[in-house]
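Recall from the previous chapter that SMILES is a line notation for molecules. Here it describes S-adenosylmethionine.
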Amino acid sequence: MSLTETEIKESIIDTYTKVASNGRLVAERFYSPEELQGLPTSAVELALGVGNPARHAALQRGEVVLDLGSGAGIDTLQTARKVGPTGKAIGLDMTPEMIRRARANANAMGMTKVEIIDGPMEAIPLPDASVDVVISNGVINLTMRKSQVFREIHRVLKLGGRFCVADMLVNGELPEDVLNHPTAWTG
Ligand SMILES: C[S@@+](CC[C@H](N)C(=O)[O-])C[C@H]1O[C@@H](n2cnc3c(N)ncnc32)[C@H](O)[C@@H]1O
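With both inputs in hand, we obtain:
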């Protein structure tokens, strides 16, 4: 029997509410010491991504950047440093515990141009054409509705906006038991 979208979302929220720190394992794999400098320990030790999209997005001062599935905020915070006080970094997540952590991490850094918003990436709670760049790190693989997420990214981006994503791809067919296993859907 196939899992429903609601069951998968509940499982994802449960997983990311309980997720434990991985030490600096992920952070040191994908970020330079300079990039990690000054970030709160809780953002560094809860880095759960698969790359470093903020490094490759050619971010400019003054830009508005949306980080889809911001987790504890490692990329949102880096983005905020790059776009500076005239720009804005918006993190979006649907797990209340991750939202709480990211907000606490932004406050700990005294970042005023960071906003962490609550919502699903399949229905981004932002107006059309309101962001310059969308980044995402290890998140789009978690949705059953990838085309809808790409439609939403296109909708919120300004004309000429950019999208820079790090994620996992499946090359080929997944077996039924993997497709229907909650753990396989939660990353
Ligand atoms: C693997 S973690 C990556 C977190 C962060 N990008 C990083 O690199 O550390 C996935 C995050 O995406 C969030 N997430 C998963 N599915 C989501 C969805 N449909 N809408 C919004 N957030 C989602 C989870 O709550 C979790 O915080």
